[in-house]
């Protein structure tokens, strides 16, 4: 088994940008795509806030272009479900169900997965009225009535942001008390365009055969009463889970499992770099993920020169 200069785990905007820069530096990077190749943008329809696409671009098309561009400069991209990452040995070892790879430098770009409600209709309508990113998709709901599901700070932030576009935003939370900080609750409650459905769970998201969200079925958790609430969008804001389970005990992480980085995107293990949503729980945008992917590749290049 030959040792690679750089192995990149993950193939979203962060991983593929890292691959592009590493390939152009003649580091012959290997990218392991993983089961969710392309990251969260594969679940998005139109992306209108990525620079260079004046008329917008479909999420899967953007990722296909990034993948092809990295490949053009010599990045090798393989499919595989990573089952082991060992940063305690040199060279580092990455194992999939089909093969084992070793690397002098390692870039972790495994992203974070949005927590979902677990409804069958949720996946079907993702990108067709169901979203996990207000910043990405709020613009498409100008003058419409929509819902935000969640009771934490991120849900309040999303609801407040969405009132810039929607005529009405209904916050749905399964408990009678919100989990958000008092300052965020106060901001949201002071906004006249936000309505509230507390003690309420979403049971179904409907499209009435139109292929786009038309309503949600909700149930009061105390009375059991059901109601159909007409909405054209449902934003799920119940948090994200960073894909870091294979690295626990090896790299420093924060309380929520995000990889801690310093001096750019360096982890606590020299030669291991983390980029994108796996280390960013604040911005979570394709463009910021791509930026940190660039940083990871440049830092890896400098590390390999020492």
Question: What do these coordinates show?
Answer:
By secondary structure, the chain is of the alpha/beta class. The protein has 7 helices and 19 strands.
What's the quick description here?
This protein is of the alpha/beta class.
Note the topology.
Blueprint: E1 3-9, H1 13-24, E2 30-32, E3 46-47, E4 57-58, H2 59-72, E5 76-78, E6 82-86, E7 92-96, E8 100-108, E9 112-114, H3 120-124, E10 130-131, H4 134-137, E11 145-149, H5 153-162, E12 168-172, H6 182-189, E13 194-197, E14 200-206, E15 215-220, E16 226-230, E17 233-236, E18 240-242, E19 272-274, H7 286-305
Parallel strand pairs: 1-2, 1-8, 2-5, 8-19, 10-17, 11-12, 11-17, 12-13
Antiparallel strand pairs: 3-4, 6-7, 7-8, 9-18, 14-15, 15-16
Helix pairs in contact: 1-2, 1-7, 5-6
Instruction: Name the average pLDDT.
Output: 94
Structural class: alpha/beta
- What is the strand content? 25-35%
Biggest sheet architecture: 7 strands, mixed
Ranges where pLDDT stays below 50 over 5 or more residues in a row are none
Helix fraction, binned, reads 10-25%
Which oligomerization state do the chains in this entry correspond to? single chain
Overall 3D geometry? elongated
Rg from C-alpha positions?
A: 21 Å
End-to-end distance, in Å? 24 Å
Order of H and E elements: EHEEEHEEEEEHEHEHEHEEEEEEEH
β-strand number: 19
What is the tally of helical segments?
Answer: 7
């Amino acid at each position: 088994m030959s040792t690679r200069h750089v192995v990149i785990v993950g193939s979203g905007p962060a991983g593929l940008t890292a691959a592009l820069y590493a390939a152009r530096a003649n580091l012959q990077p290997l990218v392991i795509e993983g089961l969710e190749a392309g990251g969260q943008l594969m679940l998005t329809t139109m992306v209108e806030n990525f620079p260079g696409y004046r008329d917008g671009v479909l999420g899967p098309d953007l990722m296909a272009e990034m993948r092809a561009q990295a490949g053009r400069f010599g990045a090798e991209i393989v499919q595989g479900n990573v089952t082991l990452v060992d940063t305690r040995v040199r060279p580092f070892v990455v194992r999939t169900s089909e093969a084992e790879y070793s690397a002098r430098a390692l870039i972790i770009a495994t992203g974070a997965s949005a927590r979902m409600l677990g409804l069958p209709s949720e996946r079907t309508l993702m990108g067709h009225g169901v979203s996990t990113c207000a910043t990405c998709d709020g613009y498409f709901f100008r003058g419409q009535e929509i819902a935000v599901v969640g009771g934490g700070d991120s849900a309040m932030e999303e609801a407040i942001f969405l009132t810039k576009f929607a005529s009405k935003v209904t916050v749905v939370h399964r408990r009678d008390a919100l989990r958000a900080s008092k300052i965020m609750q106060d901001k949201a409650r002071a906004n006249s365009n936000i309505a509230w459905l507390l003690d309420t769970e979403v049971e179904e998201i409907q499209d009435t055969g139109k292929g786009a969200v038309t309503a949600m079925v909700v149930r009061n958790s105390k009375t059991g009463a059901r109601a159909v609430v007409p909405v054209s969008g449902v934003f799920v804001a119940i948090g994200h889970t960073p894909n870091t389970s294979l690295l626990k005990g090896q790299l420093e992480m924060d309380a929520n499992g995000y990889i801690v980085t310093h001096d750019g995107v360096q982890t606590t293990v020299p030669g291991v770099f983390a980029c994108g949503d796996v280390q960013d729980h604040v911005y979570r945008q394709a463009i910021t993920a791509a930026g940190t992917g660039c940083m990871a590749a440049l830092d890896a290049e400098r590390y390999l020169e020492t």
